[in-house]
Amino acid sequence: MIEASHLTRQFGRNTAVSNVSFNIHNNEVVGLLGPNGAGKTTIMRMLSGYLEPTTGSVTVNGENLEQNAYTIQRQLGYLPENLPVYPDMMVADYLDYVATIKGIPRTERLRAVKEALFATEMTAHALQTIDKLSRGQKQRVGVAQAVLGRPSFLILDEPTNGLDPHQTEQMRALIDQLSRRATIILSTHIMQEVEAVCDRVLVIRNGQLALDQSLAKLRDCSSMVLRTDAAGDNLADLLAHLPQIDTVQCVKSREDMREYHLQLRGDCSADTAAGNISHCVLQAGARLYQLESQSRHLEDVYREVIDNGH
Ligand SMILES: Nc1ncnc2c1ncn2[C@@H]1O[C@H](COP(=O)(O)OP(=O)(O)OP(=O)(O)O)[C@@H](O)[C@H]1O
Keyword set for this entry (predicted)? Predict the structure, then answer.
């Protein structure tokens, strides 16, 4: 588990990250979202041990990162925002060099390099020099160096940045595959990416943690659409008195049909709400045509969180 506790980082007078705390459980995939300059890269650099927090701490499986940086960094793969470039090196040589720096023993290095090349589908490019590669291929080399030696923790700063749709799809599949054996935190500007690969989302706004929410919880229904016939004049009243319902709004009223938007309370069970709503419809003497739950999209939640900060 990675525990970030009250992380703050200042650059001169600028507070890039302010009092941010969260935990990442083993084998979780967590997405870090936020506008430009929100502090995502600064957080990732602190989590990877390449930047010291001004105050606060990071522990990995209970060990303090600052005090055990060498041991922890050997279990950690990091794709930085801007990869150091070695344009004249061959891909395989570069990966061998990174494997050496990571402390992978000489006898295991060749196997580790081959495995990383295979995982990132770069085997065919192993003997090419890095400056001859496309943007997407370079990005894959970045991921290959991060996954060398099968680290238990992967920190990926905008892994699909600059990739075309096909390469993006491949990168998501790779992340999905890696998540079976590693804990992953990735930053991105793409909501669909978080929805596609992450279990949880952290939204950073002005250096602060503005939302820490599991995607499952986020997708939980928070409202329902109800359609009935036009009978049952007291239906809206009956619905409004249900403990699961926050607000009732009749959004369409025709001779033969009424449509209601029902906002549910945050902590209620959707199944219990559905049972009680249908009971109310029958009690009011109306006919139930449709009862459908509506889940929230990450994009809407993100916008609410970011707009609330202004
Ligand atoms: N080395 C540095 N020196 C001074 N200021 C910095 C440094 N690194 C980051 N900052 C500042 O810290 C703030 C957060 O930057 P950071 O790169 O963490 O944001 P970000 O969320 O990753 O942005 P983006 O989405 O644009 O990559 C910004 O105001 C930035 O200018």
Answer: ATP-binding, Nucleotide-binding, Transport
The answer to whether residues 129 and 267 belong to one domain is: no
pLDDT above 70: residue 175: yes
Q: How far apart are CA 179 and CA 185, in angstroms?
A: 10
Q: Rounded mean pLDDT of 58-78? A: 91
Phi, psi of 8 (to 5 degrees): -135, 140
Predicted pLDDT at 309: 64
Q: Which of 41, 47, 81, 209 to mutate to test the pocket of ligand 1 (most atoms within 8 A of CB)?
A: 41
Q: Give the tokens for residue 108.
A: 């295991």
pLDDT tens track for 48-65: 998 999 999 999 999 999
Q: Assess whether 6 and 140 both reside in one domain.
A: yes
The pLDDT tens digits of the residues spanning 10-34 come to 999 999 999 999 999 999 999 999 9
Two structure tokens written together for 134: 């496309």
Q: Is 82 helix (H, G, I), strand (E, B) or coil?
A: coil
Backbone dihedral region of 62: left (phi > 0), alpha (psi from -120 to 50 degrees) or beta?
Answer: left
Q: What is the DSSP-derived secondary structure letter of residue 265? A: P
CA 8 to centroid of ligand 1, rounded, Å: 13
Report the CATH number at residue 255. 3.30.70.100
ipTM over 0.90: yes
Query: Can you tell me which atom of ligand 1 is nearest the CA of 158?
Result: 27
pLDDT over 80 at 267, yes or no = no
Q: Among the atoms of ligand 1, which is closest to the Cα of residue 189?
A: 25
